[in-house]
Amino acid sequence: MSFFGNLSTLFGNQSNTRQPGNNLSKKPVLRKNLKRSQKTSGQDSKKSAQKNQAENTKAQQAQSAHDKAMQAQNLEQINREAVAKAREIVVEAKAEALNIRSKAENESRELAQKAEQSQRNLEKQLDRVEIKLDWISKREESLTEQRENIQKLKVDVEEQKTKVIKKLEEASRLTTEEAKNILFERLEGKLSTEMAQFIRQKEEEAEADADDKVKEILIDAMKHGATDYVSEYTVSVVTLPSEDTKGKIIGKSGRNINAFERRTGVDIDLDMSPTEVRLSCFDPIRREIARISLEKLIKDGRIQPTRIEEIVDKVEKDIAKITLEAGKQLCQDIGIYNLPIELMRTIGKFKYRFSYGQNLIAHTLEETKIGIKIAHELNLDVRVVKLGCLLHDIGKVSDEVEGSHVELGIKIAKKFGITQDVIDCIAQHHEDEPFSGPEQMAVYIADAISGARPGARYENHEEYIQRLQKLEEIAMSYKEVKQAYAIQAGREIRVLLEPEKSKDSDVKVLGIKIKDEIKASVTYPGTVTVTVIRELRGQEVAK
To answer: Which CATH number is correct for 235-452, 3.40.50, 1.10.3210, 3.40.1130, 1.10.287?
Structure first.
């Protein structure tokens, strides 16, 4: 820095020396001597320029030397920093290498320790196995010795037993059979008193059970004397005042008859005769509502969709009141009280339900009286028999259509919380299930007697026989079928297959086919059970 300071001082002085020469022209005092000094000043300026040029050259050389010195210093400083950085890197690398080496040594030491521990564990396990093998071998030897000893003992015992028997026979002068007979005779003498007491006890028990046996015999005899029946009465007939009334019932483009069928759920058959209309429906209440509504419409003369709606609504309300009163009256006649209102309304539907011409209220009342008499005679539970007789056909007036009247009756009874013994009466009154008690058998007998008495029912034998024949024809139309029988008044069909023309898988498939065809082509109340049987028998006679 001193070097550059001297240069600045030097150049500063030179500029100061030049400034007075430059300002000479401004001063009026020096103007007079200007011409005189021109020659002298020209010479002096040349000398001054040469001197300045030499000084600039020296300054440039000095600046160049200073720059080179500074570059040398910077290079030296960079070299020193690089050496220091290289030393730090070497130190860090050595430290990292030491760490890696120490970790590797620790890991190898741990692996060696684990290997040694595993080796020691294996040696211990091998020692234990050897100990167990030694113990097992010793145990086998001991068992072998014990078996040999037991065999020897058995032989000794048999020999001793034989010797003792011989000594006893020689001493008693009796054989083994003779001694056994004498022993039994003595035991019989001692036990004769106890045997007499036992026989007397059994006789008393038989006398006590005699009444129950008599009841069972009577019920069994009555059961075999009862007959089955099936309920079917699904048509009502309305008489027309004239043949022209059919046109009013049909209406323009059939709108009246369509509205009537849609609102009541009943099919109308106009082809029966010129002055009669047949109403067909499985639901007796809907059929009765339709019958009364149609009679009112014919009497009123205004047969049109809106009037049909009004009349049917009014008749439904009237029928609901009538059925409730009919149900209450039936329960009072039988002597059953405190039943739910809805259940009594359902029972009241019996008023419009017929089974082969026999009204269900009349049948229920008659059957209940018979059942009560049987219950009193046999000392049965009268309450169970009475309720069972009242509700046994409740499924025939159910709003549901899927299932037999027995199944539907069980659902209704469970819905209203009826006891299980009464539900059993409903379930077993057609022998669909085994009888669970005498009360259930009494309900079955009373039902069969009421339905089978002369004059109780009107049977359309032709339709009944046609339905049975149709069921059998459907089953016999398949080549695998050997024979088919419609049983239980058309509620079941038994199909026997020829084992040579069929296989086991045909049993299920054929049952489904027959079921579908029956549903499509046969009209029947309740349900029809299809039972398919395939049996292969072999018989040989040894002579």
So the answer is: 1.10.3210
